[in-house]
Amino acid sequence: MIRTSFLLMFLILNHGSVSAFEYDDVYADYENDDYEKALAGFTALAAENNMKAQFYLGTMYREGKGVEQDYFLSLEWYKKAAQHGEPKAQHNVGLFYHNGIVVERNIATAVNWYKKAAAQDYIPSMINMAKLYYRGEGIKKDIKVAVNWWSKAAELGSKGAQHNLGLMYFLGEGVEQNYATAYKWYKLAAEQGSKEAQNSLGAMYFEGNGVEKNLIESYAWFNLAAKAEMDQAKLNLGIIKANLNELELLKAENKAEQYEKQYPVLKD
Predict the structure, then answer these.
(1) pLDDT in tens, 144-165
(2) Cα dist. 139→98, 145, 146, 161, 248 in Å?
(3) Which of 193, 198, 213, 118 has its CA nearest to residue 166?
(4) How many CB atoms lie within 10 A of CB 24?
(5) 159 in helix, strand or coil?
C-alpha cells in the first residue's frame, strides 16, 4: 500500500511538472535579439506543447534568427503549433502550401489552413481567402464568396478589406451596386490611412457619386493620398486645382491641412 501511494504521488508530481522557462521571459529575449537564449527557452517550452513557443521556433528557422535558415524545420514547427490551434501558425502553414515552399503547391490544403485561422478571426487568412476566390487562383472563382471574406475582415477593422469591400460595392461586383455603401467602407478605410480609399473618396466627391459633389472635400482626400506618394492621387490633385478659383483653392488647402492633422498618411 505504501509503495502504491508513493508511485501515485510520483506520477502526479511528474504530470504537474513545469518548464524552468517562462514564456514572457523567453519572448523578451527574442524581442531583444538574444536568439541563443530565446532558442533554448522556446525549445524547452515547445517540448511541453506550448503553441506560441512552437510558432516562434518556426519563425526563427524561417528567418534564420539564431539558427541556420531551414524552411523544412520552420514548416515542421509551424505545423505543430497549428495543430495545437495557433492561428498565426495555421496561416503560415497555409502560406507554405499556397506558395509551394518546400512542399508541392496545393491551394486546397492552403485554403483548409486559412479557414482554420479565419475561424479564429485571423484577418490575414480572411484576406487571402478573399483574394483566392476573387482571382479564381487554384479554386473556382466566386466573387460573392470573396466579398463575404472581405466583409468579415472589414467588420474586424482591416483597412485593406474595407477598401476592397468599398470597391466591390462601387463596381457592383458580387453585390448590388451601392454608392452609399461604397462610400461608407471607403471612409472607414481612409480614416485609417488607406491611400487607395482616400483617393477613391476624392474621386467620389469629384464626380458626385453617392455624395453631393464637393471639390473642396475632393481636394482634401486627394491631398492625403498624394502625401502618401500615390501617383494617381497626385495627378488627380492637379486636375482639382485646375477646377478651383483662388478662394476655393484657399478653402481646399485649409481643409487639406485639417485632414492631415486628423487622419494618418501612410506611404506603405
Answers:
(1) 999 999 999 999 999 999 999 9
(2) 11, 12, 12, 20, 51
(3) 198
(4) 7
(5) helix
Cell numbers for 218: 475632393
| Alpha-carbon separation of residue 165 from 116, 144, 193, 257 (angstroms) | 22, 11, 16, 28
The residue written with cell numbers 531583444 in the block is 32
Please give the grid coordinates belonging to residue 28: 523578451
> Which string of b and e fits 203-233 if b means at least 16 CB within 10 Å?
bbbbeeebbeebbbbbbbbbbbbbbbebeeb
pTM of the model: 0.88
- Residue 176 gets the label, from left (phi > 0), alpha (psi -120 to 50) or beta, of beta
Q: What percent of the chain has pLDDT over 90?
A: 91
Residue ranges and CATH numbers for the domains of the chain are: 21-120 (1.25.40.10)
> How far is the C-alpha of 115 from the C-alpha of 104, rounded, in Å?
19
Could you tell me if 42 and 60 are in contact, meaning their C-beta atoms sit under 8 angstroms apart?
A: yes
pLDDT tens per residue, range 231-263: 999 999 999 999 999 999 999 999 999 999 999
Block residue for cell numbers 523567453: 26
